[in-house]
Write a structure and sequence with these properties.
The complex is a heterodimer of chains A (114) and B (114). Chain A has no helices and eleven strands. Chain A is mainly β. In chain A, the strands form two sheets. In chain A, strands 2, 4, 5, 6, 9, 10 and 11 form a seven-stranded mixed β-sheet that branches. A four-stranded antiparallel β-sheet of chain A has the order 1-3-8-7, with no helix packed on it. Chain B has no helices and twelve strands. In chain B, strands 2, 5, 6, 10, 11 and 12 form a six-stranded mixed β-sheet that branches. In chain B, strands 3-9-8-7 form a four-stranded antiparallel β-sheet, with no helix packed on it. In chain B, a hairpin with a 5-residue loop joins strand 5 and strand 6. The N and C termini of chain B lie far apart (41 Å). Classes of the chains: A mainly beta (114), B mainly beta (114). The interface between A and B is medium-sized, with 26 and 24 residues.
């Protein structure tokens, strides 16, 4: 059973507000990821982290930012939300070593910006 | 670059019917292949995986075989149940990249009718 948590599960917020989506995992995984899932279901990598103090942009350009101050925590922040940010955001983590390559996903945060 | 192509949905079947969801890929290196499932309102769960050519991944009655010659990883199940209704994602991960991020297909929605 995956131990990766996301809060909030659902968020409706007005344009211009600052928001932070939380993601935490208790598996001690070094690698963590944020994916954006559009209404057509496609998933796109927007951020990833190799470990503490390491963050990189993903394949899809995003106005969001991330931080990795602790191994278990990988929050995503939008400084000024816009309707175009409406989407589902999925957090994932994986081991650094070994051959498993399995990524464990959180339940997601569904964000609606009005 | 890397890409995954899945058959478009929705796929609508009657209970106990045979399921095939096609998946083909292109990859710059030697990929590991995965099928993830997303139930309504939830995150993604790993369904099965294969890490080298001719490997067969299997779980919960689902199977997929890594076919390097046809660059395919088709998902099959002999007898579907209503509880299998979900969105299925084919994905790949190229092992020689440090970030180990998944490249997803666009997802196939399966609807099983009683």
């Amino acid at each position: 059973e995956a131990d990766i948590y996301q809060t909030p599960r659902y968020l409706v917020i007005g344009t211009g507000k600052k928001i932070t989506l939380e993601c935490s995992q208790t598996m001690g995984h070094d690698k963590m990821y944020w994916y954006q899932q559009d209404p057509g279901m496609e998933l796109h990598l927007i951020h990833y982290s190799y470990g503490v103090n390491s963050t990189e942009k993903g394949d899809l350009s995003s106005e969001s930012t991330v931080s990795r101050i602790r191994t278990e925590h990988f929050p995503l922040t939008l400084e000024s939300a816009r309707p175009s940010h409406t989407s589902q955001y999925l957090c994932a983590s994986s081991e650094s070593a070994g051959s498993s390559y399995e990524q464990y996903f959180g339940p997601g945060t569904r964000l609606t910006v009005t | 670059g890397n890409s995954v192509t899945q058959m478009e949905g929705p796929v609508t079947l009657s209970e106990e019917a045979f399921l095939t969801i096609n998946c083909t890929y292109t990859a710059t290196g030697y990929p590991s292949l995965f099928w993830y499932v997303q139930y309504p309102g939830e995150g993604l769960q790993l369904l099965l995986k294969a890490t080298k050519a001719d490997d067969k991944g299997s779980n919960k009655g689902f199977e997929a075989t890594y076919r390097k010659e046809t660059t395919s990883f088709h998902l099959e199940k002999g007898s579907v149940q209503v509880s299998d209704s979900a969105v299925y994602f084919c994905a790949l991960l190229v092992r020689d990249t440090g970030r180990r991020a998944l490249t997803f297909g666009s997802g196939t929605r399966l609807q099983v009718q009683p």
